[in-house]
Structure formats: structure tokens, C-alpha cells
Amino acid sequence: MSEKALRLGTRRSKLAMAQSGQVADAVSQVTGRPVELVEITTYGDVSRESLAQIGGTGVFVTALRDALLRGEVDFAVHSLKDLPTAQPEELVIAAVPVREDPRDVIVAKDALKFTDLPRGARIGTGSPRRMAQLNAYARAHGLDIECVAIRGNVDTRIGFVRNGELDAVVLAAAGMNRIGRSEEVTDFLSVDTVLPAPGQGALAIECTADNADLIAALAELDDPLTRAAVTAERSLLAALEAGCSAPVGALADLLADGQIVKEMRLRGVVGTTDGTALVQLSTTGPVPQTHDQAVALGRDLADRMLAQGAAGLMGERAQ
Questions:
Q1: Residue 44, C-beta contacts closer than 8 angstroms, at least 6 positions apart
Q2: Residue range 143-174, pLDDT digits in tens
């Protein structure tokens, strides 16, 4: 490979630039080549509509993929939770690096924790998945909250709390960590309270399927256990025929005996946004050794969830 700079396509948001910068450094180390960031504006970045209104699936991804296919960039970095579950044949996810913290977090006024928020607390989130689970938890534990739909970057969302419009907002721990603002988090939501989005906290490094040299170089950044986990989670999402904006949570985690990883547990949840109905199930099996085994883990759990009425809780199923 020559010394010519590799072009990394990235969204323009502060979070996207931060995580792409971290990937650029890692790619530069494994390839010995400089990496330059190419900023690309996606439809999801400019639209002010809710993600559910504009389709959710792919709104942050399509422009990056178009740039890859046109040869304007050599590879792209995505937040895995934004990726549609169907993979284009011309593109390949060459690496899924080690995952960041997959949990959701609260940034609340007066440094309050979720369970200490005042009665009638207004909590901002643009995610039907978060609304469904927060409302369900509140119902089960006698809390009185109101989930308020919001859009915007991290600064905008936290601004709603700082100016008193909202009592709290829900964000992803991974994003707060990557932009160096984790000290502003007032509470980490246990995955037993709110399951994250499929793939949350993980990144996907994508390039064209015919670029064998780059695929081989990027593969050095791949973490097989993270890839197996997110593959199972995304398989569940795909089998439910749900898009990125559907109220679906999933997390595959590793069960270890001391230092030895024994099994993978996959948990999934689907719920109505008001929290009145949830289907929440889990399955445990051997750690998947192949892509197909990880896919099967997700599909099997989705089948069980559908048998318990999951489809009826998602509104219109994604086509």
C-alpha cells in the first residue's frame, strides 16, 4: 500500500468527528498511512423531523455509503446502531472494534438519579425504545414521569436541562465518553432497567467489497466477541422486521467463569411507547464462533418474542 492518505468518510457532528478521529488514529497505526477525515452531511443531520417520521433506518448512513460507492472516500465509520440490518453486496463491514459502554445514561438537573426525579418529571429522548422502557419501569415502581420527544446533538439536548425546559435527558454512555463529557452524567441506567439499542456503543468500519488490501488492514481492528454480540443483536432486530427507530432493545453479553468466557446471553425487549405492554425475553447459548451462529441466536429469540405478540407492540412493522 502506498503512502497516499486514506480518506475516511464521517458525519459532521461533534460525536461522529470524535469517534472517526479515534478510528483514523488506529487505522493510521495499522496501515502506516495518514488518514484524512472527509466530512459528509447526511439527511438525518439536516432534518428536524423525528427519526420515526423520516424512517429512522439509514438516515445517517446513506450519504456515507453513496460516497464510498462513488469512490470519494476509502472507508467510513458508522455508529452500528444507525446501520440498516440489510448489508449492500458492494460494501463490507471490515471491522467492528471493541465496544464502548452500551448503556444509556441520564443527565438531570441538580445531579439527580433517575429514581430521585421529582413527580411529573419531564424526561427528553427521541427514542421510542427508551420511552417504552422508561415508562414501563415508572409504572412498575410507582414513579410519575413524562417522556418528551426531542431531537438534536448532545449540546442541544443537555441545554434543555440547563435552561430548565426538561428535568432530564437520556443519552448514550458511549457518546458521552467519546466526546469527553462523561463527568456530566448524573446516572447510568442499568441494562436491567433499559436495554440499549441493538449495536449501541459499537462502531462499524465499512469499505467497498472489492478493496481486498484495505479489508485486510482494517480487519486488524476487529474484535470478534464484539462482532458476535452485535451480529446477534442486529439479527434479532432484522427478524422482528423492525427498523432503527422501532421500540426494540437488545444486548448480547458474555457470561464468564473467572477469566474464561463460557456463554453468550442475548436479551431482547419490544414495547409500546407508553410502557403499558412489553415483551422481554432472553436466551443463553455457546459463544457464537461463526457469523451464522450469531445470526441464529438472534433469530431464535426473535421467533420466541413474535410468538408472544411482539409484532403488535411495534406499530407498523418496517418494510
A1: 51, 54, 59, 60, 82
A2: 999 999 998 888 999 999 999 999 999 999 99
Alpha carbons 96 and 232: distance in angstroms, whole number: 13
Look-up: residue for cell 452485535? 230
Cell of 69: 460507492
Q: How many CB atoms lie within 10 A of CB 185?
A: 17
Burial class for 217, CB neighbours closer than 10 Å (0-12, 13-18, 19+): buried
Phi, psi of 280 (to 5 degrees): -130, 120
Helices and strands: H and E segment counts in the chain? 9, 13
Written as nine digits, the cell of 240 is: 422482528
Q: List pLDDT tens digits, range 75-131.
A: 999 999 888 888 999 999 999 999 999 999 999 999 999 999 999 999 999 889 999
Catalytic residue among 82, 104, 167, 187: 82
What does the longest C-alpha to C-alpha distance in the chain come to?
62
Query: Are the C-beta atoms of residues 247 and 128 closer than 8 Å to each other?
Result: yes
Contacts of 3 (CB under 8 A, 6+ apart): 32, 33, 34
Annotated active-site residue 223? The verdict is no
DSSP helix, strand, coil percent of the chain (3-state; round to 5): 35, 25, 40
pLDDT tens readout for residues 46-56: 545 544 444 44
Residue 188 Cα to chain centre, angstroms:
16
pTM, to two decimals: 0.88
- Among residues 254, 260, 247, 255, the alpha carbon closest in space to that of 229 is found at 254
CB 235 within 8 A of CB 294: yes
Using DSSP, state whether 174 is helix, strand or coil: helix
